[in-house]
Each structure stands twice: as structure tokens, then as C-alpha cells.
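Tutorial handout. Part one gives the primary structure; part two gives the three-dimensional structure as C-alpha cells.
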Amino acid sequence: MARVDFDKYMYSVYTRRYDTRSNAAAIHLYEGSSLVGSLYFNYDAERANRDPVQSGSRVVLYYHMSMLDTIVDMLRNEDSVYLFYNIDAKLGYLNTGREEVGEEES
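Part two.
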């Protein structure tokens, strides 16, 4: 499992597209000024998420729109968040760093 570190993100929400398969929102992940990852969100909850892809040094993950609030909350409130991926296993996810039980966010 490879890990992508990032320290900034940019969050975009699009107007509704012509069909529900289009991306409704995107979060782009940056390490310094370099784009290292993108998370795309689509409207169609009945459709399976696409497999993660790697394009050069950028990793792209796909989610249903229902996950957007959870992921934005994670990015805003957790101190350490990482993107992990394994293209061969068709798996990608965001993960927090280890925290003490009951620790409050500052």
C-alpha cells in the first residue's frame, strides 16, 4: 500500500451536469504547490465507484456524493490525514493518523 502525503486541499462543487454520472464535486490534494491527489464525487449512488487510478504522480479516487460531508469533515478536523492506494488491488482510501482515545481536536 503506497501513501500520499498532502498538506493543502482545494474543494469545488459543480452545478448539476447533464446526467447523474458526471462529477458533482472534487477535492484536489496538494503537497506544497504540487497536485498529488484528486477525489471526485458523483451523484449516482446506484453506480459502483470507479477504480482508483494513478496519472503520473497524482492519484485519483472516486466516491459517491453521500461521502462528501464525511470527507470534508475529516480534512477540516483531523490533524493528520493521508491518502493510501494500491492500484493493482483497486483500492484507495483516506486515513487519519493515530490519536489517543478521547483526544479533543484543537
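Part three, for discussion. The beta strands are 2-4, 8-13, 23-31, 34-42, 53-55, 58-64, 81-86, 91-96. The two ends are 30 Å apart (CA to CA).
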